[in-house]
């Protein structure tokens, strides 16, 4: 048979993931001659062989790339037969514009796990074992192209044995940049609370003894203790100055996790994935200390994702609290010196090592809702992989403030930063700024415009305005809508139902439950929840009884509210009078149509949560207590047309809700009925708007669209009316996903301005 040749160019995540050895093995198997190399654009292959062999080779190449690889573009052309005698991996080319993507960190693979547990193996018990299929990536990368000298592994010259693995194309560690062994790699150390090195103790022993350990993990420090030791858990909670927010745990393995949580096949798949995020699971109530996750029926669980974690599960340990290493609202600590100064008062011991964490990366959080995985916090394991979008000019989108992320675009790719936390905290903000600088360099991006939210108080906005670039301002909920469309790979006009906490509206009021018809270019507000005053402004967020008072005052007046003052546990009649005075005088009472505040008001009036200690707490706890067996109808409500816009009035809902509370109907039942009501409000509004919509697609976004009960109710009702609900999966529905929406809107508007026409 005659020989043929093919030139194959592959782009995507194809470096640092064992791609060339994979190509090499495949070539040998199919008797292909030629070469493979890395270049600035990705991987280049010259393949010669008989036509059937070539076909098989290319088919397998595309169908079964290594686990961590992701092929985003490929080009295959006929080439000239050169008559190569064998197949080789040749030296990398360093040319042209960088297009190679930085791989995210990947959880320990089964092969490395086996080696770490195998007595006699040279990596037995070694906490930094990794291979081309797993291990640290983004968190240790200091520069590009991704090569050992440009990582924090540069200080660890490989021993002859590791070096041999590294250079052997058939070895699993061929060009594994962080390759290491006990001979040559990073080492663990234990320090006491005063920073003195201690010997003769092991971390599992210390954990079994009820100690709290600060553990240097992959993307930052964790605070760790035995999750089944109530005293340790309580001590950790008071030390962290975090009164209510649930702690995440790490289970020894999936079997152990099942003892404490119900796990679906989908959830198991995510737990065991290379991303290995925290998965929010329904908890089995028994045996768990109350302080672990007060007020909720769920538990955030992850599995050991590095050998270091695996090694903690000895001495009978099976469930560890694994919460981010920080005090109250400060950022996750990832530098050793910060750990020793900031965590000293809370950690009894420090488990540290000498491999530097260069890029902070929090644990990601995922929840399966309506049988679909939704990402709540996007960081370790996912960042810095891009989301594909229509090609557009490069922009820098600054995101929101509460769950800070930014988004940089290049061509048809949108790169979201990892979750940076609340940017109101100056440490978070400084890291956000530093990370933006790094990502621009890593990705070689030169934005043409900056995109910001309308909220004048956002630090991200202020920073954006200082960048000396053309500024594009995007309304908060328009960005949520665009984010959901982009997440679903769409760019057409659709209705967005945005259920959210706080976002600045174009009329100067605080929006939050919005029905926006729009695309990446523009939007129209078709309907929204009625406006109510927020007595005391931000105070109405932390003290949700204020919102309850506001709703009752709006609908039934002052006298009714005062008569109902017995319903306001924890608020005296005097305080209620002050609030009424504020509302009536219009002092510090911004108007809001927020969905979050409506949830807060119901939660507070039911006595579920009257003081909000972490964002969304009142709504989360309201969802948690909802009666799972409820299947009745919701409370009544009205849709009122006003100047071409539909307004949802909650007056009738409140009347019946108050009656239920007075009758002593259990809070769980009222909560479930309230959730149903909000879902029915959404369905009824969509139905009423039907004739004005270009399609049946409805994009669901905003922080409240992480409420499982709400989303499942809304999706069910919309499907019954033959709408197609679109939910988030790759970026969060909350403000962590805002920057993606801003980026695609900004890209469209920058396109129009620069006269290069519309995207298609
Ligand atoms: Zn591995
Ligand atoms: Zn070695
Ligand atoms: Fe928002």
Describe the structure.
With 760 residues, the chain is α/β, with parallel strands linked by helices. It has five domains: 87 residues, 2-Layer Sandwich (Alpha-Beta Plaits), CATH 3.30.70.100; 85 residues, DHBP synthase, CATH 3.90.870.30; 174 residues, DHBP synthase (Alpha-Beta Complex), CATH 3.90.870; 128 residues, Nucleotidyltransferase, domain 5, CATH 3.30.420.360; 199 residues, Nucleotidyltransferase, domain 5 (2-Layer Sandwich), CATH 3.30.420.40. Helices cover 32% and strands 22% of the residues. It contains 22 helices and 31 strands. The chain has an eleven-stranded mixed sheet with strand order 7-6-14-8-9-13-10-12-11-15-16, sandwiched between helices. Helix 12 links the parallel strand 21 and strand 22. Helix 15 packs across helix 16, helix 15 packs across helix 17 and helix 19 runs antiparallel to helix 20. The longest helix is centred in the C-terminal third of the chain and has 23 residues. The two termini are 46 Å apart. The C terminus is likely disordered. The structure holds zinc ion (2 copies) and fe (iii) ion. The site of fe (iii) ion has 7 residues, from helix 13 and strand 23.
